Each structure stands twice: as structure tokens, then as C-alpha cells.
Hints:
The complex is a heterodimer of chains A (343) and B (231). In chain A, 34% of the residues lie in helices and 20% in strands. Chain A has 343 residues and is α/β, with parallel strands linked by helices. By secondary structure, chain B is an all-alpha fold. The N and C termini of chain B lie far apart (53 Å). Chains A and B meet through helix 2, strand 6 and helix 4 of A and helix 7 and helix 8 of B. Bound molecules: adenosine-5'-triphosphate and magnesium ion (MG).
Amino acid sequence: MTVDASGHAGAAGKAGGASLEFRGVTKRYDSGVGAPGAVNDLSFQVPAGTICVLVGPSGCGKTTSLKMVNRLIEPSAGEILLDGVNVQSQPVTALRRRIGYVIQQVGLFPHLTIGRNVAVVPGLEGWSSQRQRARTQELLGLVGLDPRRYENRYPNQLSGGERQRVGVARALAADPPLMLMDEPFAAVDPIVRERLQDEFLRLQRELAKTILFVTHDIDEAIKMGDLIAVMQEGGRLAQFGPPDEILAHPSSEFVARFVGEDRGLKRLSLRTVADLRVEKMGRPVGLPRFTPGTKLRDALAILLVADTRGGIALDEGGRPRGLVTVDAIASSLTDDPPARVGA
Amino acid sequence: MQIVAATIQWLADPAHWQGSNGIPLRLGEHVALSGLSLLLAALVAMPLGLWIGHTGRFSWLVVSSANAWRALPSFAVIGLLVPFTTLLDPNLGFILYPTLIAMIVLAGPPLLVNSYQGVAGVDRDLVEAARGMGMSERQILFDLEMPIALPVLATGLRSAAVQVIATATLGATFGFGGLGHYIVLGDANQDNGELFGGVVLVAALALGTLAMFVLLERRLASPGLAPRTAG
Ligand SMILES: Nc1ncnc2c1ncn2[C@@H]1O[C@H](COP(=O)(O)OP(=O)(O)OP(=O)(O)O)[C@@H](O)[C@H]1O
Ligand SMILES: [Mg+2]
């Protein structure tokens, strides 16, 4: 399995996920003719096993788009296809049980223990209690919570970060091919958020679910997304593509402003020292050393602070591979983007 | 002090603990009719309140019933019913029906209001998360909203029970029986021992009922619903 710069897995060909497609999806909350839509003619495709992030300013229709997938909201026009089948043609509760759902407020049931919370959908699906219990323990372990310590606690005895993990475990319980995540990490502090993001990406490398992920934070979108759908006011799709492409070639003034002036630097955070063409070295003494996984953005920052002409790129075995220079880092942006899922 | 002594004396007299006007029988009467009224009221008001709380439809009904409840004194309700119930049966229509109907009717609003508030007060994000996971509306009501609303539902049952016990006591004026009978008789005979003996018995019954509901709630409510504990 290949893992690219931002820790994404080459998940193509794995059977963990289902493909998802939006076809001309529109939602008007006011039914009046010519009323402005919350979502307008949204069309895009998410290949199986990839993370697609919906990002955009507040009120641009991200949550509305997400909830049309599990039919908490019905579209006014257009269709949403899950593995090629219109979600509106499927019985609604059966559909929802095949779609994991994680929300910012987490929504754990306060009267149930953590174990019972995780087992909600398996319970609805009529699994035997032994199978539910085994699955619950497996999942708690998967999200980094010791089942013996947490299984019998109640949600009000957990920290915000722990609750979010349980929320993810609960959404994964019945092994759904699609997960909907609405700002799942927004309610925790930045350090915990970063850890949850990293853990989730690691998990996704194994599970290869198809994920529709909502955030209003462009940095989170770049980090989490194999594909990014930038939305703008009025629920329109401003741009759709891999993060590097959106950062390199914003399709409009709006997207350029939304991704920020520092989009070049953001692109560097998608690349690592391992992606870099290094220069031959003379006699390296006292230079900073970079492991292959170091993000180019961090390498650049270190070089600028250290005020040296370069640093040493190490290979997987920790042996010097060549010289990393500020120039080499800058010119890496003209190279092809690093390999990503489906690329 | 005289009253206290007289009350204790009256309560201690073994003669008052037997026969067709004995305390066990009157207590039994009071408890049985109160329990029956509470049950009937709960069968109607609670499902209605739960449904209104879950769907959010007809919530004005809850508000107006609560207002009517506050405005209507129990005694007046019984009195207003008498002319109609005596048409049905001159005897039972006076001593039994009006009080029984008032007990049922007056137990309704606290049950309705608390059932409604308990369910409507459940976090809507939680309900949407449940719906998004594929729970049916029925499952959301029974497996999510009702367990979370349980403390509020218990409060409703508690107030309704006390209301019913109080109304039954007032009904004694019309010959309803129960523990209120002693109060009416004691008053008529100017027997303070009997009058306050009745008062003490009614108060004990009401407090006992309260305690029972509190214990029941403690047993049934999930520990997860307690205020956040350190941990
Ligand atoms: N139930 C509703 N009835 C009417 N209008 C609604 C409803 N829900 C959302 N809207 C409107 O639709 C638009 C899109 O809302 P939505 O919640 O999808 O935005 P969002 O992109 O998720 O925003 P945020 O980042 O703040 O969560 C907003 O203008 C909002 O006011
Ligand atoms: Mg939103």
C-alpha cells in the first residue's frame, strides 16, 4: 500500500466503500417559484474509498448537502446515487443504517453506556448480543479507547475528544460503506483536533470507506480530503478537485480568496521530503536532518530559522540521501502533485 | 398541645383501626380510588403528551390545559359536576362520580404538561442523530426520548398523584369516603382528635406517595442522566 505526503492511502481497488454521486442536486427551503436555493445544481462524483470534503463559508449549504444523502432532507431537484442507485428509491431506515453519521454535537445517547451507544445500529439490525459486544470492543480499541475502561461509562463521564472518538466508533459499527461527517472535530481544541484527524486518516487507510466530510476550515479540508468541493454562497459548487490542484489553480477569485494568500505554503504541506529531488552533497556538517515524512512546509520553516543553505534528507533507514535546499523546495511546486488516491 | 394530645389519642385508639369506618378501610378506599384515577388519567394524558412532544404538533393544547388547571380549584370542579352526575344516579352521582371525575380530570394536566415537556426538551440534535442512524420514529420515542425524559415524567406522575389524593380528600364533603371522611366528621362533631387525625393520615399518605415516586425514579433513571460527574 502506498502512502502519500499527507498520509493518504492508495485505497483504490479496495471494497470498503461505495461510490457516491450528486447529479444536479438542488434544495430550496422556501417553495416559492424563483426562491433562492440553499443548494443549487450540485454535481460531483466521489469514487469508492475516498474522502471528499465539502468546504465553504458558513451558510453555503454544506450541511444541507450532507443531509440530503441520508435523506434527513429531501432534495427539491436532482438525484444522489449511492453505488449507482438513487437514495430516494431506497427504504429510508435501511438506507440510513448503511450510512455512518457523525455530527459536531456528537449526539451520544446520554442514558446509555459507551458500549451500548456504539452498538446502537447493530442493535437495530438485530445482531446477537455476543456479536454486538465483540464489535463494540473491537471498535473502541480501533479508535484508541480501552474497552475495559470505557465500555461501561456514560457519555457525561468522557472528555470532548473521547466523546468524538465514540461518535466515530458508533458510526462505523455496522461497517457502512459510506460515512457522513459534519464538522466532526470542530468542537475540540486544536491539539486534540489534530490528533483526531491523524488517527482518523490512519484508520481510513485500513478501512477505505467512502467519506463525505464537511468543514468550514480550509486547512482541515486540505489535510483530510482526497477531493475537495469548494462551495460558495447560494449553495453553488465553486471548484471540485484534489487539494493540490485547487491550491495550484483556483478557478475563480472566490476560490483564490477562500484558500488564502498562502496557498503556495499550503501546497508544501501536501508534500514531504521523500517527494523531493535532492542535490548531490559535499561534506555535510552540522546541517538539519529531515526524515522522509517531514512535510516540506516544516522543512522550509526549519531551514529559514536555521539560516543554512540546506539540510540533509534522510532515507527510510536514516542514511543521508542528499541535500534539501530552499530552492529545491520552492521548485517542487512546479512538479506534478504527489500521488493521491485514485491518481 | 391539647390538639396534639387529642390527635395522638385518637390515632392510638384501637377502635379506630377496625370496622367499616376504620383507618385501614378508609386508607384502602383512598388509595384504591386515587390509584384508579391516576391510572385512567395517565392512560389518556401521557400518550397524548408524549406524542405532542415528539411531533411538536398541537402544543397549544398543552399550554391551555396547564392554564385551565391553574385556574380551577378542585372543590369548584366537584361542585360543578354534581348537578350533571346526579341526573345519572341520585346517590352515586353525588357521593362518588363528581369526585372521581374531578380526580381524573385534574390529574390530566400535570401528566400532559410533563410528558410533553420531557420529550420536547430532549436535544433536537440528539433526535436527528438517532434518525440519521436509521431509528424509526417509534424507536426514537421509546428508546431515546422516553428514557431521557424519565425524570420529568416521574415529576408529572408525582404531582398528579398528590393532586388526586388532595381532591379525594375534598370529596369527603360530598360523602366520598376515604381519609377525608375523618376531617369532615371531626369538624361536624367538633372532635379535634378525629379532625387532625384525618389531617395527619392524609399528609402521611401524600408524603409516602411522594417518597415512593422518588425511589422509583432513582431506580429507573439511567445514571448517565445525572449531572456531569468528574471522571
Ligand atoms: N430548515 C431550514 N429552513 C430554512 N432554511 C434553512 C434550513 N436549514 C438551513 N437553511 C438555510 O440554508 C442555508 C444553508 O444552510 P446549511 O446549514 O446547509 O449551511 P452550512 O454550509 O452547513 O453552514 P455552517 O458552516 O454554518 O454549518 C442557510 O442560508 C440556512 O439559513
Ligand atoms: Mg453546517
